Structure prediction request, 185 residues.
Amino acid sequence: MSKHQLIVTLLGTDKSGILSEIATAVSQAQCNILDSRQAVYGREFSLTMIIEGSQSAITKAECTLPAVIQRLDLLSMMKRTSHHEKQNLANLLNVEFSGQDAAGLIQSVTGFFADRDAIISAFRQRTYQESDHNVMQCKFVVSIPTSESFEQLESDLMTLFASLNVTGKVVDKQKKDPNENTTSW
Prediction:
């Protein structure tokens, strides 16, 4: 029996029990949750999951989930997909940079990683006033292909940072940075 997969994305106001109700509906459709990501932004909630089951189970999930989603007052989107591959966690990098805020900074850095077939799995940006200008801080979690040399990527990224007039660093998550600040901003 071949397995079929469905990506389900939900958005709405955060409240207790959402994941439990969705997981129950997925289970009742005879599907399994292969992977999911959840985030809360203030009072808003987002969830993306990939579920797997037989063709009839996925069809059942497509038919029964909307009623649960509507009852929970959520927005949703569903899409059938093919084989799900787990994220490569062996080549994860923490990337941070900061400097005077300017148009095109994020585009330049995200383009750098796109050109290397890297995947940005987390992204956080903060802008604040300092003296007479805005300062932007950015943090990414990036998964790079196994064929990519960390040393070369680091060198090329530092060159890019210098050309953008920002400071930054890249840390291989497999190797702990002794100067890492564990506090969050």
